[in-house]
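QA checklist item 7 of 12: single-chain prediction sanity check.
[x] sequence parsed
[x] length recorded as 133
[x] structure emitted
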Amino acid sequence: MKLLLVVAAALVDADGRVLVSQRPEGRSMAGLWEFPGGKLEPGERPEQALVRELAEELGLAVGEACLTPLTFAVRAYPEMHLLMPLYLCRRWKGVAQGREGQELRWMRPCDLSALQMPPADLPLIPTLVAALA
C-alpha cells in the first residue's frame, strides 16, 4: 500500500485563533475545512514542504525555525495510508490570503470540532486545544 506523507500547520495568531481553510470546489473533499498544508514533493523534507505550501496557498513567508512539531495523524484509505504531521506556527510574514480560491477562517481552537473536516484532521484537534489552553 502506498504511503502518502502530507504536512499541515496550525497557524496561531496573537489572539490564540487558528487558521483553517475550506477545500475549494473541484477538489476531493470540497467544502471541508482543514489545516493548511499539502503533499511533499520528491526529495523534500516535511518542513521544506510546509514552508513552500504556506507560501503557495496563503502567501505567507514562514521560516523553518518557526515550525514546531506538535502531533500527527494517520488514516488508512483503500488506496493509500496517510501520515500527516501537524506543526505549530506562531510567527510568519504577510497576511493570509486564499490564493487557490479557498475560504479562510480564524477560529478559536475549542470551536474547531464544530467544523466539517476531513477524517485525518479531526484527531489533531484535542492535542491542539490542549497545547493552546
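[x] summary fact logged: Residues 46-58 form the longest helix (13 residues).
[ ] second reviewer sign-off
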